[in-house]
Amino acid sequence: ALGMDVVGYDPFLSVDAALRLSRNVKLAKTQEELLGKSDFVTLHLPQTPKTKGMMNGQALAAMKPGAVLLNFARGGLIEDDAVLAALQSGQLGRYVTDFPDDRIIGMDNVIAMPHLGASTPEAEENCARMAAAQLEEYLVNGNIKNFAAHYTHQFILRIVDLEMKSTQYTLTGT
Quick one: which H or E segment has residue 60? Predict the structure, then answer.
């Protein structure tokens, strides 16, 4: 573990899973214990109603001053305002994520990277198929599916119009 002492916390850890852990992993009894001991905290959990916003002001205040938070799990696990405040105060020394809030992207103590969770060849092919099917659904039937709310219908029409003028496309289903 890169010469580090590894401490883990999982309130739902089964006996089976615990037995498969390395003997070098120490288990914290509470989230607060883990945060107070750790120089580096990495998040490895899904976003659920119980975990959404779990890294809030209270959790960040429980961390060792200057600790590093790494979030490659889900953006909703952290409260952006709390992370911003903790970064500005120095309570949080660095934030490393592939879900950066626009306000923190340019900060010196933030490392923002692209989200690569679905970057296997199979996932990329599936994404391309879904995108083509959604574009076909829009062009043929006028229906927009799974599109970010901040893009307007006129914006889509403008892009499609520009693309159609410059290139001839053939869409086929699979």
Answer: helix 57-62
